[in-house]
Design a protein that fits this description.
- This protein is an alpha/beta fold.
- The chain has 20 helices and 13 strands.
- Helix content is 55%, strand content 10%.
- The chain binds one RNA strand through β9, α13, β13, α17 and α19.
RNA sequence: GCGUUCGUAGCUCAGUUGGAUAGAGCGACGGACUUCGAAUCCGUAGGUCGCAGGUUCGAAUCCUGCCGGACGCACCA
């Protein structure tokens, strides 16, 4: 695909210089603008002539005509060329491109679509980063699938990727759940209460806030508990370990459910001390300074940021302090070339500060830290607010989606066909959710309407999955016909229908899409590609019989194309966390 | 106030390095199941790309200003 484009660019460059004659500077291949025409009927590649009008002292329309004549004079063209107003449109040789694309897709199978663009690069990706005082919510789900998907895309581009999670397991918010448990828990456990363990912990966090509303002394009690935690109080630490285990166990269950995993997990409780030590070293090297009250500061006003505290006067650490320690520990554990933090856009300023501090401390790798900032998930009424109970819980949402999927399967009377109803419902729910969350460009805020947002019709995950099942279904039918293809062979020149050629180009485009998604850290490009591929195939098979043809060669050819589409679909699914289904 | 970011159809979103008549899905209306699965397909209606300048042969896209929203500018994380 790309080879064809490059070949044509070289040809057009040569022809343009032929038209130019001896006058002026030569036109370089890099200057040639090539684009995809707005409509497929126009061709496969288009060259606008506007940029050369001045150089050649000629109207674009006239250049187009003489360029076509010049190309035809050169001869041996890999396709057809025609002028269209100020454009020169090119049509590739269908047969040869189709052969190479389909054969490559079928030969590579699960590896089709990968590139070597990032071969050898070591990338660490941090995402999720939950607190251990409550279960995951919808915002985490966007973060999780974004981090997981970006990691898979980077891997598909040849990078060595280390996925990492930072568990925020210490701080005042943790103590609040603990305090409420001490007061209202009555020694119960998630098992005895029959509640998923992270929800069990989260419920006490809610209870604390209710209590604190009535009784102002609650906040002070929480601060006191944090002091005892910092001092290593045995009783507090033991309760902390017990409740953290509950929270983490529950969160891990949700990760398993959503297909999220990590190669390395860091706990804030284990890295914050290292941050303090780095800050103390920074005082010695005069990067930081100590105020008379004992607090430690960094002055970033020279780069337009603020003066930031790093250690309080009592010597305790703040948010950015532990991130300093964590970054250094990570670089030591896994010498990354690049570290990507997948964190909500509200933390933009925090990361500017963090990266700047690490740079001041003299770490050359600080230049390779990247904040992949993504927008908030809002409700139609506005922001999710825990105080108003509008937070959409991750497990509840998944339960609801699975219920909807199961109901749909039953309504269609396909329980028998599907086999494992629960597993299929889970796969559909996950496909719907992940596609919904990744469709939107990461940087944008998005609106989630619990009642209407996730549907299974139209531009949705299940729509894409459905196309996969239809291809699988065609292949099953083919098997039932018992070697109907016989001597029939793949003959790409038989791919005459417009949609067939579009499908070939789309399948061929997967590696380019993967490359660009990797460059831009943007899974929504893969999502958009999937919808185009699926809807083109949907239109195609609707009015073009794959199996029922008089010519067995045509059947074999269309089967090969359908398989290639299935391969591209399945491989792109993997990148955005949509399960591929044989039946649904 | 300063900084970051977003503003495209009734709603939710695409829109490639600036390029041909700005595209989808949902919702609305009208069609297509005897033929590889209708979670599908086809059609109709729906737009001052927030506003105003600028750069350019050409701007939804780049620049400036303004308007509107979100987020940030904590010894919270």
């Amino acid at each position: 695909m790309n080879d064809a484009a490059r070949e044509w660019i070289a040809l057009v460059c040569k022809a343009l210089n032929g038209l130019r004659g001896e006058s002026g500077a030569p036109i370089e291949a890099a200057e040639i603008v090539a684009e995809v025409p707005p409509k497929p009927e126009l061709g496969d590649l288009a060259f606008p002539m506007f940029p050369y009008a001045k150089r050649l002292r000629k109207a674009p329309g006239l250049i187009a005509e003489s360029l076509v004549a010049e190309l035809e004079r050169i001869g041996g063209l890999p396709g057809k060329v025609s002028p269209a107003g100020p454009y020169v449109n090119v049509r590739y040789l269908v047969g040869s491109v189709a052969r190479s694309v389909v054969e490559e897709a079928l030969a590579l199978g699960p590896r089709y679509g990968r590139t070597d663009r990032l071969a050898g690069e070591r990338v660490m990706v941090e995402f999720s980063s939950p607190n251990t005082n409550k279960p995951l919510h919808l915002g985490h789900l966007r973060n999780d699938i974004l981090g997981e998907s970006v990691s898979r895309i980077l891997k598909a581009n040849g990078a060595d990727v280390c996925k990492t999670d930072l568990i925020n397991d210490r701080g005042i918010h943790i103590c609040k759940s603990m305090l409420a448990y001490e007061r209202f828990g009555g020694g119960r456990s998630p098992e005895s209460a029959g509640v998923k363990s992270d929800h069990f912990v989260g419920d006490f966090y809610v209870k604390f806030n209710e209590w604190a509303k009535e009784d102002p002394s609650a906040e002070e009690a929480a601060r006191e508990m944090l002091r005892r935690w910092e001092a290593g109080d045995g009783q507090v630490r033991s309760l902390w370990r017990r409740m953290n285990d509950w929270a983490i166990k529950g969160i891990e269950e949700t990760y398993r459910r959503t297909g999220i995993s990590f190669d390395r997990i860091y706990f804030e409780s284990e890295t914050y001390e290292a941050g303090r030590e780095e800050v103390l070293k920074g005082i010695a090297s005069r990067v930081f300074s100590r105020d008379p009250d004992g607090s430690v500061w960094v002055d970033l006003t020279d780069v337009g940021l603020d003066r930031k505290v790093l250690l309080r006067k009592d010597g305790t650490t703040v948010y950015v302090t532990q991130d300093i320690g964590t970054a250094i520990a990570r670089r030591r554990d896994y010498p990354f070339d690049r570290l990507i933090y997948v964190v909500a856009s509200e933390q933009h300023y925090h990361f500017k500060v963090l990266f700047n501090i690490l740079s001041r401390l003299g770490f050359p790798w600080a230049e390779n830290l990247h904040h992949l900032s993504y927008g908030m998930v809002n409700l139609p009424e506005g922001k999710m607010k825990s105080r108003e109970g509008t937070v959409v819980d991750a497990d509840d949402l998944l339960d609801e989606l699975e219920g909807m999927a199961a109901a749909e399967i039953r309504a269609k009377g396909r329980e028998e066909e599907v086999g494992d109803l629960a597993a299929t419902s889970r796969a559909i729910a996950l496909g719907a959710l992940n596609y919904y969350l990744l469709q939107v460009s990461p940087s944008k805020d998005m609106v989630f309407d619990p009642k209407e947002s996730i549907s299974f019709v139209g531009n949705t995950g299940p729509y894409l999955q459905y196309m996969g099942t239809r291809i699988s279904s065609i292949m099953r039918k083919l098997d039932e016909l018992r070697s109907p293809l016989g001597e029939a062979e793949f003959r790409p020149e038989l791919l005459a229908a417009g949609d067939e050629w579009e499908l070939v180009k789309l399948v061929g485009a997967l590696p380019d899409v993967v490359a660009r998604a990797g460059d831009e850290l943007n899974p929504s490009l893969v999502a958009g590609y999937l919808f185009t591929l699926a809807s083109t195939f949907s239109r195609y098979y609707h009015d073009t019989p794959v199996l029922h043809n008089d010519d067995p060669h045509l059947t074999a050819t269309r089967v090969a194309l359908a398989k290639a589409v299935g391969t591209a679909l399945r491989n792109a699914f993997e990148l955005v966390g949509i399960p591929f289904l044989e039946r649904m």
